[in-house]
Amino acid sequence: MANYATLLILLFIALSMATIGHCSWISGGAPPPASVGEVDLGFADELTDELTPGPNGEPTKEKGGAASGPGPAGDFMIQGKRSIWEGFGGVGGDFINQGKASVTPDSAETFIVQGKIYCDPCRIQFPTKISFPLRDVKVVLACHKENSAEETYRVEGMSDENGNYKLKAVGDHAEEICEISVTESPEINCPDLMDDENHVRVSLTTKHGIKGRARFANPLGFMAEVADPRCKGVLDELGFTGI
């Protein structure tokens, strides 16, 4: 009986040592190798941050990849990014460590909103081949709560010689309605505000399924007071007859 009890004790000690050796990585040791099959996450060696141009205006490239293991807080980080999983959703969407995300206001919560302002000589409220860009148009990006007209955020800009504008919006506005609008044309031959294309909504959040920080708004425009004589031929080409 004594030999049998001794044998059981030795067997218990051996099993305990094997278990401790396998799980020691939890308390700071190296983790056991994990197999992920044939999944290729495709992380690039360089990350391009268009919001931080280099000395010559080129996009900044951030070197580096994921750390070889968990950091002090248990998260895998790339400098300047929330985590290496941002935008990927992990494998099956189950590996995002949101509680450990590092937020950098200038990068993670900054959006670049781009669009174009044009003149519609045909008064049909959509671009044609004889439409032309409008420069020096004041463009306003404003946000407000859904149940209130009080502005919570506002930024303004101007269109360039090509009718293009670019606005930098800071902060996540998931709980707000944000719109771009124009109110006054600097072109005396194209003064009338369009009914349908004088404002457009934009989403300034990444919480509703839109990834990335670039936002491209629909064109906004003004109309000529009197339709251009060329418009009939232009509309005929488009199949709009009898207008």
UniProtKB/TrEMBL annotation:
Keywords: Disulfide bond, Signal. Residues 1-23 form the signal peptide. The keyword Disulfide bond applies. The keyword Signal applies. Residues 47-72 are annotated as: Disordered. PANTHER family: F28N24.16 PROTEIN, PROTEIN DOWNSTREAM OF FLC-RELATED. Belongs to the Ole e I family. This is Uncharacterized protein. The lineage of its organism: Eukaryota, Viridiplantae, Streptophyta, Embryophyta, Tracheophyta.
